[in-house]
Amino acid sequence: MTRIRDRMAERGRDVADWLEERTRLVSFMEKQLYEPTPRRGMWLYTLGSATLFLITIQFLTGILLLFYYVPTTKDAWNSIYYIMHHVYFGQLIRGMHFWGANLLLIVIGLHMIRTFLSGSYKPPREMNWVVGVALIILVSLLAFTGYALRWDQEGFYAWEVGMKIASYTPLIGAWAVSLLLGGDTVGPATLSRLFVFHVWLMPAILAPLIGVHLILLRLHGEFGAAFEYSERLAKLNKRKQYERMEEYFASDEEEEESSRGE
Ligand code: HEM
Hints:
Layout: H1 2-23, H2 25-33, H3 47-66, H4 76-86, H5 90-117, H6 126-149, H7 153-167, H8 173-181, H9 188-220, H10 225-261
Helix pairs in contact: 3-5, 4-5, 5-6, 6-7, 6-9, 7-8
The chain binds protoporphyrin IX containing FE.
Protoporphyrin IX containing FE binds at residues 45, 47-49, 51-52, 55, 108, 111-112, 115, 118, 120-121, 125, 128-129, 132-133, 135-136, 139, 210, 213, 217, 222-223.
């Protein structure tokens, strides 16, 4: 048993070495996966990764829904009904997309609260905070436009209320409403625009912005980790110094004893 396990571990290492030599994938993964985090509140530092995971699920299930969803006022709701009742795993995929969106809003909110409470918006991480604000606005808009894509009573009236709110935007209110409606009232052009915003435009902005967010994170590291680790490093260095001194004096004593013995 142990021999088989050892051999399997050895094979695994061979495969990893082979990949590393040719693609540098292993060191890349190691760099991406291991980020020092402060000891206090360690688990709260996983909320960003949880957000990333949920967004990825949204992208994947969204692509699958697109195989059947039809963005016309006549067929939108019928296509969703079809997905729910006739498509293999349709109910599961739609459920994941719907509940995933709700969970995503909660988790992104918690992630924002964590970064706020740990003071991660302070220098030099202000830009990451600003990018984060853009991300939460985009994710909220994605959830809102997705809600209306169902084109049922709830979605339809939610969009109407949204338009009423948008119309009060100073200076650009009227222009924003006509852009979002595609005319003077809610109609087929509105659904087409909702579809474009939800499926193309916003994900196309969101994906690179997430990339920028992660690059900035790598640039400065997690807030609090740097000084905590430097403190630990300083302690470690001091301990090593003491150990070296002890070794030095011990070897000195040994030498003295051996010379006396001679
Ligand atoms: C699409 C949405 C988002 C994704 C995928 C995402 C992802 C991440 C990840 C993976 C981390 C590192 C792990 C962690 O600290 O939890 C992180 C850190 C961070 N995020 Fe986000 N995030 C998002 C939204 C936000 C929002 C809405 C804000 C705030 C307005 C924000 C501000 C920050 C800041 C300031 C850091 C650095 C944390 C530190 O240095 O302690 N993020 N994000």
